[in-house]
Design a protein that fits this description.
heterodimer, A: 394 residues, alpha+beta, Cytochrome-c3 Hydrogenase, chain B, 3-stranded antiparallel β-sheet, 8 strands, 48% helix, flat, B: 312 residues, mainly alpha
């Protein structure tokens, strides 16, 4: 059968961000997929190296609007790992509350988008309406609906006012009945079952091989969660369960996310009720030379930051690895063999967040070849030599 | 004079002008109900008209690899077919103007808008449009089978008549087989309209509106108008075939408007409470589930006719 190439992206109604998926199709069946990232590289790592340690927190908060707490969380942990220090107990709880609130709104956002991708716009609108309630809670607690600006190396910038806690708890309790109703509507919908079950199979072995993270791995039966594996914040101080399903398909990923929202609500409520007193900040004055790593379980999986300090007030090197970077290659295992209709929801099922993932990608002029690091250095040196020769500099 | 009357009927009332105005109103109802279901406010009454006029003012781009004449004529063909259906239905309902076999003509004409979409998509030469056109073709094959069985049942129940005037006089919904075929026909109408769950051919988030992808400006506006007029014409067809036709004497006006709005809202609610199915699932649904049920309803209707049991 004749093969043709269908491109999803760089600008496509399916994706909110510029990203290119080249699907090689035979009729309606996808036989191969090629993923190209690098359409929106913003050089945040370099920007971060030009800011001091406190300013960097705000820059990397703007890597992504949805996981706007995950990156500062991982970054502050990396900086604290350089010194090394333990943050005060109250700051740990506050960080956990903000991070879990973010997980709830991120998962609701994914549900809305997944509904939209399936042509189920009612779910889209309802989920985003419900998400507003969570954003209200976040506004009560942090003063901001998104980009909370709560984190700083050594603690948190802003305390949670104890007067606000009853209102926040009331708002969170008010979410649960609506969430229950949506859960019932989603889990009992026969057409959704028909659309989501048995497609985009990522087996347990493949999930391990591709180093899948977050809900993508947990839906394939790989119990992998930084919050449980290497507890930080207040995650070892409250009682919660890691959600793991064995179904390996898109349906499994949807179920994992749905049930994780309940766990997150549980964590936020427990933390708010048992918020310990004390300091919220260590007031770190200087960062000694050294290296540090920090990880945080973002809504999409583990976000990992590496920071190197040379004793000045700026990071000498800051490396960001977002979870989607690890989850994108799993598409190679899940998409081929499915139909175009299924391919779109499989692409969306890893909850891709491209702004976190963006890397600079350099292609040859014909667009065929993707250059690696060593080749880029060689090209750069050749160009410099050429310019020098033209200008007559030895 | 006869010819002037028919030209007037086709162009002004109940043809083009009337159908378009009420069609745009129907899309407003669609958008408003959709918005209310989705916790939104919805557009003002004139919004569909504004959208249409705005599209008319946009640049018309014609793809270089496409066939120009076919690409531009496809929307017109679709629109004319729907207007013709509307004219025939209203003439039959209002003044009893009919000819033998007009039901069959209407059934044929109703396929033409889908064919026009397919032809237009294929003429544009875009791979996504081709995918959309092939999906549209599969969808036509899928829903036409149960739809035709439904029509056969209608003909049987109305005393072997293929004249719309006589069919409109018998409310077929008043029996078991009538209810079954009416529901099945409603689902087929959903597919004909290209509404969720059967909007596989357009599938915005999969193939970017499929056949429409290369359309812009006036041709796109004409396609939108075709969809709007279909949203008006197809419920009227359902009322004529199953619900005892249109009646404009006394309280009949209110009853007719209610019937129309009820069907319209039902279609919109189905659209908003379902995700899109895959094309293979759609074909399976129509062939393996709806077609046998429609056939069973037909057999029931045959028994009802033989033993003179009116409720079968």
């Amino acid at each position: 059968m004749q093969k043709s190439v269908i491109s999803i992206g760089p600008y496509h109604p399916l994706q909110e961000e510029p990203e290119l998926f080249m699907l090689t199709v035979e009729g309606e069946t996808v036989v191969d997929i090629e993923v190209s990232i690098g359409y929106n590289h913003r050089g945040i790592e370099k920007l971060s190296e030009r800011c001091n340690f406190d300013q960097s927190t705000f820059v990397i908060e703007r890597i992504c609007g949805i996981c706007s707490t995950s990156h500062p969380f991982a970054y502050t942990r990396a900086v604290e790992d350089i010194i090394p220090v333990e943050v005060p107990e109250r700051a740990r709880y506050i960080r956990t509350i903000i991070a879990e609130g973010e997980r709830i709104h991120s998962h609701l956002l994914w549900y809305g988008l997944a509904g939209h991708f399936l042509g189920y716009n009612t779910v889209y609108m309802w989920m985003w309406k419900l998400r507003e309630e969570i954003l209200d809670v976040m506004e009560i607690l942090s003063g901001n609906r998104n980009n909370y600006a709560m984190f700083k190396p050594g603690g948190v910038r802003r305390d949670i006012n104890s007067d606000d806690i009853p209102l926040a708890l009331k708002k969170i309790d008010a979410i649960i009945p609506t969430l229950d109703r949506l859960k019932k509507a989603i889990l009992d919908d026969p057409v959704l079952h028909a659309r989501l079950k048995g497609i985009g199979i990522l087996t347990k072995e493949e999930a391990v091989d591709y180093c899948a993270l977050g809900p993508t791995s947990r839906a394939s039966g790989v119990a992998r969660d930084v919050r449980k594996d290497a507890p930080y914040g207040a995650y070892d101080r409250v009682d919660w369960d890691m959600i793991v399903t064995e179904s390996c398909d898109v349906w499994g990923k949807a179920v994992v996310r749905l049930l994780e929202m309940y766990e997150s609500i549980k964590i936020v409520k427990t933390c708010l009720q048992n918020l310990p007193g004390g300091e919220i900040d260590l007031n770190i004055k200087s960062i000694p030379p050294g290296e540090g790593i920090g990880a945080h379980e973002a809504p999409r999986g583990e976000t990992f930051h590496y920071v190197r300090s040379d004793g000045t007030n700026r990071p000498a090197r800051h490396k960001v690895r977002a979870s989607t970077f690890m989850n994108l290659p799993t598409l190679k295992a899940t998409v081929p063999g499915s139909s175009i209709s299924d391919a779109t929801i499989i692409l969306a099922a890893i909850d891709p967040c491209y702004c976190c993932t963006e890397r600079m990608a350099v292609r040859s002029r014909e667009g065929k070849k993707l250059y690696g690091g060593q080749e880029l250095i060689r090209l750069s040196q050749e160009k410099t030599k050429k310019i020098k020769r033209e200008m007559g500099i030895k | 004079m006869e010819i002037t009357r028919y030209i007037f009927a086709f162009l002004i009332f109940p043809g083009f002008l009337f159908t378009v105005i009420v069609g745009l109103f129907s899309t407003w109802v669609d958008r408003k109900v959709t918005a209310r279901v989705q916790w939104r406010v919805g557009p003002p009454l004139m919004q569909p008209l504004y959208d249409f006029v705005k599209l008319l003012g946009k640049e018309t781009l014609i793809p270089a690899g496409g066939s120009r004449a076919v690409f531009l004529s496809a929307p017109i063909v679709g629109l004319v077919a729907v207007i013709l259906v509307s004219t025939i239905l209203w003439l039959a309902n209002l003044w009893g103007t009919a000819f033998v076999g007009d039901l069959i003509v209407v059934v044929y004409l109703l396929v033409i808008p889908s064919l026009a979409i397919m032809i237009g998509g294929l003429a544009s030469g875009n791979p996504l449009a081709t995918t959309g056109a092939s999906r549209e073709m599969k969808l036509i094959l899928a829903y036409e089978l149960p739809f035709l069985i439904c029509m056969a049942t209608v003909i049987l129940k109305s005393g072997m008549s293929i004249k719309l005037v006589e069919i409109a006089k018998t409310p077929i919904i008043g029996s078991i087989s009538g209810v079954l075929v009416a529901l099945i026909a409603l689902l087929c109408i959903q597919a004909k309209l290209g509404f969720v769950p059967f909007d596989v051919a357009e599938a915005e988030t999969e193939i970017m509106s499929g056949p429409y992808i290369e359309y812009s400006g006036v041709p796109l506006a004409v396609f939108k108008l075709t969809q709007a007029t279909m949203l008006f014409t197809l419920p009227i067809f359902l009322i004529t075939a199953f619900l005892g036709g249109l009646n404009f004497s006394g309280w009949g006006i209110l009853w007719t408007v209610l019937k129309y709005l009820a069907i319209l809202v039902l279609i919109v609610v189905i659209k908003n409470t379902n995700p899109r199915v895959r094309i293979d699932q759609a074909v399976k649904f129509f062939w393996y589930y709806l077609a046998p049920v429609a056939a069973a309803a037909f057999v029931l209707a045959v028994f009802g006719q033989i033993y003179a049991i009116s409720w079968l």
